[in-house]
UniProtKB/TrEMBL annotation:
The gene is TRm5_3. The keyword DNA-binding applies. This is Mutator family transposase. Belongs to the transposase mutator family. PANTHER family: TRANSPOSASE FOR INSERTION SEQUENCE ELEMENT IS1081 (PTHR33217:SF7). InterPro entries: Transposase_mutator (IPR001207). The keyword DNA-binding applies. Keywords: DNA recombination, DNA-binding, Transposable element, Transposition. Required for the transposition of the insertion element.
Length: 396
């Protein structure tokens, strides 16, 4: 047997012992760092070191009390926190907050990204030796509520170049039964190109008052003008937009329109017709688009009269995007901006494999997901090169 001939079990035991030693040393170092910071902090607060006579003294020490603090290296036990007669409170951690902020943040991020509450607890236990319960993870997640309330009330810009409006559904428990709950949302693109979710709320997509409430919220927070609204053909939504933003132009989502048109065409003929419909919205100019439309109508007027009637019903709104910068056409001719947003939230909610317990939980998760999204900035042309509508938005 050689000097280095050790069994695998022996190697594993030594490795575990080494890791435990490193962990203990880290915890000891963190504890000493906390003590030093606390002592420096209370000295600055009082204006004098222990037993030091000073004319600048503002308070007197009054012993210590012990705190246990959960950190990313495990629990730090019996940290002596200084007291003073005047009621000093350390800024190192919140008065009743036993867990370091970065640990709470890690639990929030894991849950938001789709890790179950039970799995979050297991991961935290692996990293720190502590095992937060599912209810603890839930409470940590719901600390976002105050941030969400502030976000809902934040002021908005006066003008946006584009706004995308749409709605979707999530399953929520009402009186012990899972029901579809609608959420209405508006995404805006500022005149500088930044993209953000402006607002979202509960409301029936077919209810005009729900859409009006959403529009009124935007105006109450400072929005005065929208250059172009992009949406589907929902009449309740369109009526609310027209009422509150009467000067805004409207772009009908061409994907939704094509789906509506093709629903009147036999399934065997849809593939070819879909290619020709797409071509109407992929021309190099509005003039060429008008020529393509005229040829399409003439070709199919007698073959698919109902489909053609559907296309003509709000055709002008489908072609509005041609009046805006060409580099924006791909973004503004469909409502994919809203669809992708809803997709991100649903991808997270589907991992829960359960309905939301109430509306509040659903709305809070919606906010938690969008706050972590990164939106691409839309390159805006200089005012001198922009179409009239964008020039107006830049100058007013």
């Amino acid at each position: 047997m050689t000097l280095y001939d050790h069994s695998s079990e022996d190697i594993i035991t030594r490795q575990e012992a080494f890791e435990q030693l490193v962990k203990e040393r880290l915890q000891y170092a963190v504890r000493i760092a906390f003590i030093n910071v606390l002592e420096e902090e209370v000295t600055a607060f009082i204006g004098a070191k222990p037993y030091e006579r000073s004319q600048h003294r503002r308070d007197q020490r009054n012993g210590h009390y012990s705190r246990h603090l959960d950190t990313t290296v495990g629990e730090i036990a019996d940290v002596p926190v200084p007291r003073t007669r005047g009621g000093y409170h350390t800024q190192l951690f919140e008065r009743y907050h036993r867990r370091r902020d970065e640990l709470d943040g890690a639990m929030q991020d894991m849950f938001i990204k789709g890790v179950s509450m039970a799995q979050v607890g297991e991961i935290i236990e692996t990293l720190t030796g502590l095992h937060p319960s599912a209810s603890t993870v839930s409470r940590v997640f719901h600390t976002l509520q105050e941030e969400y309330e502030q976000w809902k009330a934040r002021p908005l810009a006066q003008r946006y170049a584009y706004a995308f409006a749409d709605g979707t559904y999530f399953t929520v428990i009402y009186q012990s039964e899972g029901c579809k709950m609608p959420i209405l949302a508006v995404v805006g693109i500022a005149i500088t190109g930044e993209r953000e979710v402006l607002a979202f709320r509960v409301g029936d997509r077919e209810n005009q008052q729900a859409w009006e409430d959403l529009m009124e919220d935007l105006k109450a927070r400072g929005v005065k003008e929208i250059g172009l609204w992009i949406s589907d053909g929902n009449r309740a939504m369109l009526n609310a937009i027209t009422k509150h933003f009467p000067t805004a132009q409207r772009q009908r989502c061409v994907l939704h329109k094509m789906e509506n048109v093709l629903s009147y065409v036999p399934s065997k003929q849809r593939e070819q017709l879909e290619l020709e419909l797409k071509a109407l919205f992929s021309q190099e100019s509005r003039q060429q688009a008008d020529q393509a439309v005229a040829a399409f109508l003439e070709k199919y007027q007698k073959v698919y009269p109902t489909a053609v009637e559907c296309l003509q019903r709000d055709l002008e709104a489908c072609l509005t995007f041609y009046a805006f910068p060409k580099t924006h056409w791909k973004t503004i001719r469909t409502n994919n901006v809203s669809e992708r947003l809803f997709g991100e939230v649903k991808r997270r909610s589907h991992k829960m494999a359960a309905a939301f317990r109430n509306e509040g939980s659903c709305l809070l998760l919606f906010y938690a997901v969008i706050r972590g999204l990164t939106f691409h900035k839309l390159t805006m042309p200089p005012a001198s090169q922009a179409q009239p509508d964008l020039v107006l938005l830049h100058s007013t």
